[in-house]
Amino acid sequence: MSGLGLPVRIELTPGQAADAPQAAGLLEGLKPEVVIADKGYDSQEVVDVIEEKGAEAVIPPRKNRKEKRPVDWHLYKDRNACERFWSKAKQFRRVATRYDKKAANFLAFVHVASIMILLR
Question: Which residues, 6+ apart, have CB-to-CB distance to 4 below 8 Å?
Fold first, then answer.
């Protein structure tokens, strides 16, 4: 998501795929200043990828993490822009219900829904 809560890149993965391994691919080719993510992205590999790009990782540490990183909680509050975007996207029935059998068709409609949100 951009600083305005608009999508920058969307990738479709299987439902059983974890979030953290997708981070490097999503950040490829981008030069962010700050990357805000939830605890699901709290792994040293993801933080290293973010810091290699010269960005600040604003990711709260998991409870079981031995070495706690400091988090800018003021910046972390902006993560809800991503949640608000997905809330708007799920107002489109085809996104919320995932009726499409083919991944390409579902992703295409997610792009259409994103464009409709951008045009509002």
Answer: 81
- Indicate whether 99 and 67 sit together in one domain: no
Burial annotation 62-87 (CB, 10 A radius, 16+ → b, else e): eeeeeeeeeeeeeebeebeeeeebee
CA 43 from chain centre, in angstroms, equals: 15
- Does 113 fall in a domain? yes
60-75 confidence digits (pLDDT tens): 998 888 888 888 899 8
Read off the pLDDT of residues 93-110 as tens digits, 9 standing for 90 and up. Answer: 998 988 888 999 999 999
User: What span, in angstroms and rounded, lies between the C-alpha atoms of 13 and 76?
Assistant: 25
Whether residues 25 and 72 share a domain: the answer is yes
Question: How much is the pTM?
Answer: 0.79
